[in-house]
Amino acid sequence: MRSGNSRNSSGGGARKGGQGQGQGGGARRAQGGGRGSGKGTPRPEERRYDRPEFGGGPNAQPQPWKRGAGSGAGTGSGPRKSAPSRPRELQARVEDAVRARHDRPSKPTAQSELEGERLQKVLARAGMGSRRACEELIEQGRVMVNGEVVREQGKRVNANSDKIEVDGLTVATQSFLFFALNKPAGVVATMEDPDGRQCLGDYVNNRETRLFHVGRLDTETEGIILLTNHGELAHRLTHPKYGVQKTYLAAIQGPIPRDLGKQLKNGIELEDGWARADDFKVVQNVGKNYLVEVTLHEGRKHIVRRMLAEAGFPVEKLVRTQFGPIALGDQKSGWLRRLTNPEVGQLMKSVGL
């Protein structure tokens, strides 16, 4: 019995000693942890957030909208309250101050003080090539701005007001569109037709920008007709003052007198006045079938048909092959193509733009 109690006593003492060792080991580990974390640096769970930079400090006041403030501070289970709303007058003044700050003009910088865009960028956007290719045009002295040759890279221009030319031809720097359509016979030369007939608008109805036709062609007349959104150019191309020539091929029946061309150039009297051709020539003759070319700068209705009919040669078929410097070429009937930059420049040059 004594030996058993001794064993129990020693076992209990060992256990107590083990507990003491555990406590001592824990204390040593806590001290070791404090030393390893840096001099004077508390452990994360021991850090305090009542310093001034965190909104605390000796003069800090409890915030009613923070968790734990007020009556629930001891337990941390108090309800979360919303921030008090500002009076309407104060809120209005704050909003006005914020709006005034954002509306205030920013300080001018060196970039904002410069006006316009770089010349090579404007040329590239107008379709004259890549920016590098446009820089080469400038280096070669082929670009003029307001009548002066420009060789300076990075020169800033105003695309809306400055006249920019490449090789003597004006560049359409704005968002203008220029198309040439080979109008088939039977198509009405209007953008819309109330009777539902096929018209010019059917060929460009997928364009976001509104286009309009330059001049007119008879419904049964085929050939080139221009479409654009450049109002001033369209006006000048159709105004008699600028004398833009149009060329037609007409199929007639002969024989024709040798002086028919002279008669047309001297003038044919019509019911609305005299009409004169600028040029006339026979292109083809097979038996009694003649194909003649008539060039004139007038734009009156049915002018070519009426002139030849008055001379005694009714037209069987009529095709307009050229409008100013723009030729129909081998463009197929019903095809729409975009004019090239040189063609647009030639058009503008022909009317002084």
Structure in words:
- With 353 residues, the chain is of the alpha+beta class.
- Among the domains are: 115-170, Structural Genomics Hypothetical 15.5 Kd Protein In mrcA-pckA Intergenic Region, Chain A (Roll); 178-350, Pseudouridine synthase (2-Layer Sandwich).
- Helix content is 29%, strand content 20%.
- It has nine helices and 17 strands.
- The strands form four sheets. Strands 7, 8, 9, 10, 13, 14, 15, 16 and 17 form a nine-stranded mixed sheet that branches. Strands 3-2-5-6 form a four-stranded antiparallel sheet.
- A hairpin with a 2-residue loop joins strand 15 and strand 16.
- Helix 4 packs across helix 5 (131-139).
- The longest helix is centred in the first third of the chain and has 35 residues, at 2-36.
- It is elongated, with a radius of gyration of 45 Å.
- The termini are far apart.
- Mean pLDDT is 75; it is low at 1-38, 65-77 and 109-113.
